[in-house]
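We modelled the chain as a single entity of 605 amino acids. Its sequence is:
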Amino acid sequence: MADSRKRRKKPDRWRQSTTSQRDETAWTPCLGQALYYVTGVAVMCWLAAKYSAYLETLHENNLWFSNIEEVKREISFRTEQGFYYAYYKQLVHAAHFTAGVCDLTRDNATEHRTINALQRFNIYQEVALAAVYRLFGLQVAPILFYVRSVFALQGLALSCVFATSWLLSGTWYAGALSVVFHVINRPDTTRVDFAIPLRESFALPFLFLQMALVTHYLRSGIPRWQQRPTLLLVFLASLLFALQWQFAQFVFLLQAAALFLLAYAQLLPHTKVFSLYSVHTMALLSVTALQFFHTMILGSLILSFLPASVLLLKLQGEEVRALSLARRLLVCTAHAVALAAAMFAFNYSVKVVIGQQDDAHIYKFLLGKFGLGNPRDLDSQLYLCNGAFQFLDFGSVRRLTMKWVFPVYVLSEACFVLHLLATVVYKWRRVSKLAAAALLFAVQCCPLPWPTNYPRVLSIVVGSLILFSRIRLFGVGNRVVDAKSNRDSDADALLSPQGGARFSIKPEMAYHCMQSLLFAAMATLTLRMKYIWTPHLCVMAAVGLTQPDVWTSVLQRLKVTHRSSVCIAITEISVVPNFSSVDLTTDLTTDLTTDLTADLTTDLP
């Protein structure tokens, strides 16, 4: 009996040991994944802190800012920079903070008449910084706290660039690479080191935060319980961005246009697009209320575009989706004309009702930029004579090209656009399967290894030969009919969700691909707006190097299984040689700071 009991207990012990081994093996991937995420977040925070300290060091080395007199620090804020800082100084030195805020609502020192400065200008950031300074009773000089706060916001912007690249690529290596691109191209990605109090220095970090949150919200696998908190954070980021910069409405217009185009092409769910539209509307209306019902936002194009685009998406029926490609393009053109007409008609009606003409100078500037406006108009000429509002200069493109980020961006964006077109072709079922398959193979063949090193004609010829050979090799275009399903087996295998899922572009990637094109167009028209596009350029370039959907076919052909090694190799090839040409301490070469430094150093012991 004893022997039989021992025999019965052995299987139980064996089951217990097997269960414990399974538990250990189940916990191992979770621990590894947690360690991976913790490492990525730690790297992101470390890089953001170092970048803020780096900008402050640059500013200190160029101006000796902490060692000069207070009046000379204030002199370094020229033009509108000193104008905005004056409000912060007024609040800091006011007898009572509330009394200082009330004085801003009855400002009679700025213009010939009494105005509400909180309504007229975007100075809520100065109010917030003055409140923090007075609340905590900081011992540091007010101007030093002001400057360091702006540099801390740039660290937030860099961490958002890191997070966006991480979300798009699935690896924080892309985030680190985007940071490297951002830093080595710093003269073209930010101007905060010599224009600290500008509105964009406060606002752009919250724009990049909003774009990172939108990226997370548009992901197809996001749980339902995360959607509402993410929308709330998107609202707060949008509110802070629009509250601090008068040009935020135009950035929101480009965002809404990108979302509309992708929703119209069935690449984004309408429910998510409508939710983001609601967030944009609530943020802009909240800014209107905080600015004492300023009418400029109510008469903006973005608030006219949103209802028109929602109406058009609601009217988009299934019969339109069933049309052939040629007819559908005609319908799309008609819808675009109808959308523009409805937007301008609604905008004109709103302006007539509220009597708003505050943004007339913006339209005069746009007309004058293309030579269509009145050449004697003072408002447009004031903008056109400013270098910041000229077209994108060739020097910016040359610098970005010399440091490799622009060629990588062009190549990556071309791959993403081909992915986008291939996905649209798949969505529009009546399109020829041969055309769709050709697009998909073009996506695979597009990321040739560094085509910028070869003559353009040779690259095109080689790419065409590879595309033709791959089509002939895989039999694309030959009608191979499956006897059981009576379908085109080759094309359907590529275009089916099972066989061609890796060719379907992700919703968040489609959004950033379209958004990057619109930002590039805006930067081309106005040089000042390049500081919105170039950080996004760094993101797309880094994602293009680490995106598995783009490089999988190339890696398979090269018999490489770990894409991280390829990313590191490409980074060494494209980034490391450029560090020798980057001066990390003496990049500030404007005439203003040069003259100021020469004047200040003569008084120092």
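As a brief sanity check on the tokenised model: The chain has 30 helices and no strands. Confidence is low (pLDDT under 50) at residues 5-10, 430-436, 447-502, 568-605.
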